[in-house]
Amino acid sequence: MTRPVVLVVEDDRETARLLGELFSERGYRVVTAASGPDGIRLAHAEQPDLVLLDLMLPFKSGDEVLRAVRTESDVPVIVISARQTTRSKIDLLQLGADDYLTKPFDVDELVARCEATMRRTRHGAGLRTVHRVGELELDETARTASIGGAGLALTATEFGLLTVLMRGPRLVHPKPSLYQQVWGRSAGYEEHTVNAHMHNLRRKLRDAGGEDPIRTVWGIGYTLKES
């Protein structure tokens, strides 16, 4: 069986070594990059299953690496950074990061977040599960989505959010519930994380030429309009 690949883009040798050992012990094949250009090159060459990305990198910043990766892949990207402001987190999430962890990080929390993110990207087995709501179509098994026949290039997190909404159209989904279902945990709920990813999802629906069927229920969460 082919081992899943984790790409660690981190210029601090000690942190890169720690992450390498942490995921190697759990059965992953780990590849590392110590600069922004190397991170972009290896993301293209290795087609990893997960990317752990620092922001302060030589030659190209983590922000630039994330932009480059998102032009060709929906691979889950977890940012690990010393930046602690809410604005920084929102900016990275809107660029397409799936999650954000602040240094110094707790090892158990990092592993839990990575595993939750990886679960959202795995293809289902067995019968094909397809949801259709208005112009929207989502295939959980093939992990594809479209609106008005136009394909949607969604990150794993955006796909997870849309899946929850399409499983329960007309229902109002509170933000803490979305966080628990999509991120796989209830502790550490961050409203701005849900908002940022939902913003990206809705923008992509509009950019694809369809009508954005997601509605904000102020003070509570989101719902999906059926027609």
UniProtKB/TrEMBL annotation:
<dbReference type="InterPro" id="IPR011006">
    <property type="entry name" value="CheY-like_superfamily"/>
</dbReference>
<keyword id="KW-0805">Transcription regulation</keyword>
<dbReference type="GO" id="GO:0006355">
    <property type="term" value="P:regulation of DNA-templated transcription"/>
</dbReference>
<dbReference type="GO" id="GO:0000156">
    <property type="term" value="F:phosphorelay response regulator activity"/>
</dbReference>
<keyword id="KW-0597">Phosphoprotein</keyword>
<dbReference type="Pfam" id="PF00072">
    <property type="entry name" value="Response_reg"/>
</dbReference>
<feature type="modified residue" description="4-aspartylphosphate">
    <location>
        <position position="54"/>
    </location>
</feature>
<dbReference type="GO" id="GO:0000976">
    <property type="term" value="F:transcription cis-regulatory region binding"/>
</dbReference>
<dbReference type="GO" id="GO:0005829">
    <property type="term" value="C:cytosol"/>
</dbReference>
<dbReference type="InterPro" id="IPR001867">
    <property type="entry name" value="OmpR/PhoB-type_DNA-bd"/>
</dbReference>
<dbReference type="InterPro" id="IPR001789">
    <property type="entry name" value="Sig_transdc_resp-reg_receiver"/>
</dbReference>
<protein>
    <submittedName>
        <fullName>Response regulator ArlR</fullName>
    </submittedName>
</protein>
<keyword id="KW-0804">Transcription</keyword>
<dbReference type="Pfam" id="PF00486">
    <property type="entry name" value="Trans_reg_C"/>
</dbReference>
<dbReference type="InterPro" id="IPR039420">
    <property type="entry name" value="WalR-like"/>
</dbReference>
<feature type="DNA-binding region" description="OmpR/PhoB-type">
    <location>
        <begin position="128"/>
        <end position="226"/>
    </location>
</feature>
<dbReference type="InterPro" id="IPR036388">
    <property type="entry name" value="WH-like_DNA-bd_sf"/>
</dbReference>
<dbReference type="GO" id="GO:0032993">
    <property type="term" value="C:protein-DNA complex"/>
</dbReference>
<keyword id="KW-0238">DNA-binding</keyword>
<keyword id="KW-0902">Two-component regulatory system</keyword>
<feature type="domain" description="Response regulatory">
    <location>
        <begin position="5"/>
        <end position="118"/>
    </location>
</feature>
<feature type="domain" description="OmpR/PhoB-type">
    <location>
        <begin position="128"/>
        <end position="226"/>
    </location>
</feature>
